Amino acid sequence: MRQVRLDDAAFMNQRSDALVLKTREYGDADLIVTFFARELGIVNGFAKSARKFRSRFGASLEPLSHVRLTLMGKEGAALPRITQADIIDSFRAIREDLQLLLHVAPLADFMAGMLHEHEPHPRRFDLFLAALRSFEKGAPRELVALAFRVKFLWMTGYAPRTGGCGRCGATFQGSFALFYPTQGTVLCRNCAPEGEAEAVKLGAEAVKLLETVKTRRFDELAVMPVSGEALAGAGRVIDAHVKRHG
Ligand SMILES: [Zn+2]
Known about the structure:
binds zinc ion, alpha+beta, CATH 2.40.50.140, elongated, five-stranded antiparallel sheet, three-stranded antiparallel sheet, 8 strands
């Protein structure tokens, strides 16, 4: 019978669906790749010789590629070796459309900034993947980008409160609401702090939009009529909120 040494057991293959977030050149021909892996969370891997010639291995490590990833290394190692990355979906259409990439790349950064290494978050992974599929299908870019950010914040428990006053609970009425980034919420006129200059004005349609995107799927949102003004207003609230609390 073959004896398994403890050292062997410590070296293991880890497999997961993963999205390539970014790559960094290393040495003459190697790459260091940052993945968001469904079962492993954010992980960095070392891709030996990935930049040699036009290797298929290298092609599978282009940013945004969805791959079935195999890592080899000690559990929890800082830089395990990438032994395999089989493309499930390359999302090439997104990568090669610079205008679209301008919408998608910041979302990857936003997401990576809110995740820790080696903490799996399958639902957040699935959300990002669904957003990428939606972008690829040509869904409205601003709307999908906004919905992704709102849904992601909601999943992490950091969503801004916009459906009503965060202090007294009064439901939204009237033509606009005031969102206070310092408080992370909309506040009614009675509860608003005095002399707070930082409030973001939010029209009624933007308030409704921020609530709607939480619960609708991307494909449902894609066919929803939304004004540019509501999108811009909702986007300003998320920007201000993330800047303050992200
Ligand atoms: Zn109030």
